[in-house]
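Researcher: Re-running this chain for the archive, since the previous output was lost when a drive failed. Same request as before.
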Amino acid sequence: MSEWNEKQEEAKEEAKEETKEEVKQGVHNYSSEKNYIYPEDIRLQKKLEWFKDQKLALMMHWGPYSQLGIVESWALSDMDSDWSRGGIDWHVDDATFKKQYTELNKTFNPVRFEPDKWAELAYEGGFKYFIFTTKHHDGFCMWDTKYSDYKITSEDCPFHAHHYGDICKHLFEAMRKKGLGIAPYFSKADWYIPYYWKPNTQRGSFMWRGPSYNPSEDPETWEKFVEFTHNQLIELATGYGKIDILWFDAGWVCEQSGQDIRLGEVVDKIRKVQPWVLSVDRTIGGLYENYITPEQCIPEDVIDVPWESCITIGTSFSFAYEDRYKTPRELVHLLSNVVAKGGNLALNVGPQPDGRIPKGAIDSIRGLGAWLRQFGEAIYGTRICAPYYIDQIAFTKKGKTIYAIKMYEEDELIPNKIILPYKGKVEQVTLLNNGAILSFEYVQEGLSVLLPKDESIEVPIAQVFKLN
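Model: Regenerated structure tokens:
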């Protein structure tokens, strides 16, 4: 075996050893609520109550990779090639593909991007805050950063001269006008900047999700990366209006793994300017993970600390051609399940490379919004209520009022009588959408409620019973 091949094999083994299970096939696990630390700052405590009131976020992964319709960033990592390169079905070797991916900025030209239309859709869909990928692991910046030339406003990107060229600026402004909170997604890793994937190291050409060198053995380069990261974060927090949440990805970049970017230091600096800003240092726990972030899943049980589940409306976070989008019924059921267990839902949509939202996603978002306009009282501003989620019924509460959200499948027969497994004292049961007072009686399982006959004509997505 040649010396070069030996280095490649050593790099692979090193990556296997260093790679933890915090990310599997691009999906993060999530921190245990046992390790959660409530912030002592009263401003952050108030902001967390604001966060728990919102319930529904619009999340977006968008960048030059959308042109290919493949997973964002991950195919650049050789360590993750076994699952991330399945969509690369043209005949190129790994090095050629990486070059093609990195140069996608030269063809990214989303001339049909209209931020006001995106914001109007978000408002119509009932979303309350907005999580947007300012930079994914590939390092491409969707704002006019001074610290990298790999950005939407660089002259080698054809969109740079467009009047919406600084995408983050215009998008954040449009969303704020519609009352949405702003949460920049920011990858702590950067696979473009030479301070992270430093060229000509002993690792050779084989790359993994971590740095191409050991930070403890090259502290000078690592410090340059730390300074670069701090500069970009301060730039976003001081030049792009009011920020509500800083949403950090790339959980392997942390002190525990030897990749200490001193995140707390820069977050504290930002809070001197915007003291209410929540920090979401995913999978790390501690003082700078102000809420927990399950991904592509709903926890089986209630989590009694602030949390948010990020789940895709389609099959992937980035845009995929001919994707299948969840129906309004599926979205309402998903949201009800999450909220009943104490969480928020961050519903991810991958925009098209031309700057439009896919029609299938638009239709489902509008359907979700239509339901929320009728029944949002049972979602927004609520808190958990036992028995939480059981037999396709989600329970929430607001003050002394209990809401029971009964979910139906499309072909399900609507009964004349329904059992609500709630055993607290109830004086009146009404339908939330029309105020109709329903007859009920106490039974062993909870409340037996008689439904009006006209409610059986059409299968609703979900009925909401108001218990007072």
